[in-house]
Amino acid sequence: MSTDEEDGTHHSSESKDDQSSSSDSSSSLEEKEFSSTVKIPDAAFIQAARRKRELARAQGDYISLDVKHPITISGTKRNSDDDPESEPDDHEKRIPFAPKPQTLRQRMAEETSIGNATSEESQEDENQDIWEHQQMKKAVKIIEERDIGISHSCGSLTVKKFDTSISFSPVNLEIIKKQLNTSSSDQALNYKFYKSMKIYVENLIDCLNEKVHVNIYIIFFFGEALLEKNGFCFYILYFDLKIYSKKLILLTGKEETSTNGNLAVDEKTQWILEEIESRRTRRRQASVLSGNCNHQEGTSSDDELSSAEMTDFQKSQDHILQNQKKVFEDVHDDFCNIQNILLKFQQWREKFPDSYYEAFISLCIPKILNPLIRVQLIPWNPLKLDSIDLKQMPWFTSVEEFMDSSMEDSKKEDSSDKKILSAVINKTVIPRLTDFVEFIWDPLSTSQTTSLITHCRVILEEHSTCENEISKSKQDLLKSIVSRMKKAIEDDVFIPLYPKSAIENKTSPHSKFEERQFWSGLKLFSNILLWNGLLPDDTLRELGLGKLLNRYLIISLHNAIPGPDVVKRCKQIAACLPEKWFENSAMRTSIPQLENFIQFLLQSAHKLSRSEFRDEVKEIILILVKIKALNQAESFIEEYHLDHLKSLIKEV
């Protein structure tokens, strides 16, 4: 057959293939492909083929391997993108079965890429060989070092010969069985104890969670009763100041007065005024019966109630305390008696001390006892002098006994069980005390202040085991005390200013009211300084001297008529000052906050030295000496040639 005939035959086969379906063409190709002998190409051939395919793809002249999409000539595809209507029909699409002849430039680029691929592959093989060689050297080195270490350790060991002279007790099967039985029985007992303790603690917590709501309910109503009682006293004091000061102002202006000179008020106001006056009358009579002849109006307590009011309050209190006893009446003692609860944990501590301390039980006990202790603290009133002491309460003694029976070294300062009492006080007692300070305590009441200071001193000093640590609850308590005293100075102190003509007559209502208000302010001044030792000196000086003495009391002193009455007031002020502030023997000048008071004393001494009250000058010099204003006292004595008073300074 000639060449032309072969070409014709080839073209005729192509036309037949164009008319056949694409599926027939693909199947015939697959049959030819699988019929040929399978040869595994080497890496160089695969790399060359990859480079060749990438080059053909870059030129757009390649056969797609995706059989899911129709195969088109790249040129036709580009034309179809530009003009969708120019896309040829299916019978016009042709599939080339042989690549086009390559140009010289394409063949040179192909040979270059094959050479580069071969060099890159050889470089990768070389790097792989180097890495494998390094890893093998490391492994060999580690094995050699291990063998050397084993040989040294084996060489250093000495073979210990068995001493035949030592005799051992005979061991038989019965002994081994007995030891196994003993060990297993101990494990069973331990498991039984831990399981029973787990069940007990779970039941205890469930019980306390059930009763805590009732506990809060009772505490709330007891606090409401105290608030109602003290609120009535505060209301009486406030109404007294408001009505009486208004009355004096109207009397001074001669306005809105009745025919008998009294203030025209409604029936309710008149009843309150009569109640206030009757309370004062009772206090005067009580002072006379007690033998207190130096009683001053304004220094007596305003927190007492009438007999009827006291009876009503006592009934309400008794009712609440009866409900308190019913809180745990349906509970077994093992779950409500603090001594029994601590006994359970004491048994744990004695039998298994390691697990006891590893479980940090000393941190859990204060939280467990909190609801039970709060119930016992319901009748406790730290504002009453006859209130029960904390040390006499059952929970206090139980906790102390539990701490004393601790197996830890008693000399160990950071012993966990030794801090249980302090933790209970911080978490339970001090918050209760803070509530009394914020809502119930009256700083004007000397009896309440004295009782509160006593309890605070016991709690903050005697039972403070962590000397280097100030708990948050203690900080909150001290802040509440300072805040409450500031509020008392701002709200409860009132010093009226009247013309001297209105207060010259000691029997006038203006003079009596001014005098009562001064002594009331001085009473608060004394109560504030009673906190010496519990509150910082700077805080006390700011409250007592800066806010009260220099802002209120000194005004009343300047407005008063010079004489024995003024000297008496100054002596009382000096008597309230803590002696600790003036213990330094080298002091010649007093503390800066007393400068205004010292200047008033010197002015009073100048006036009295030229009056009929010359003997009062000596009292003023004694006050200056007491507060360590020695330089001012010496200057005054030299100025007025009071040589007979120099001995007062030399005695210091």
From TrEMBL:
GO cellular component, one term: nucleoplasm
Example GO biological process: spliceosomal complex assembly
Span list, region Disordered: 1-128
Residues covered by the GCF C-terminal domain: 339-553
Keywords: Nucleus
Keyword NAD in record: no
Alphabetized GO MF terms: DNA binding
Compositionally biased spans, kind Basic and acidic residues: 8-19
Cell compartments where the protein resides: Nucleus
Family: Belongs to the GCF family.
Name of the protein in its database record: GC-rich sequence DNA-binding factor 2
Organism name: Propithecus coquereli (Coquerel's sifaka)
Lineage of producing organism: Eukaryota, Metazoa, Chordata, Craniata, Vertebrata
Encoding gene (name): GCFC2
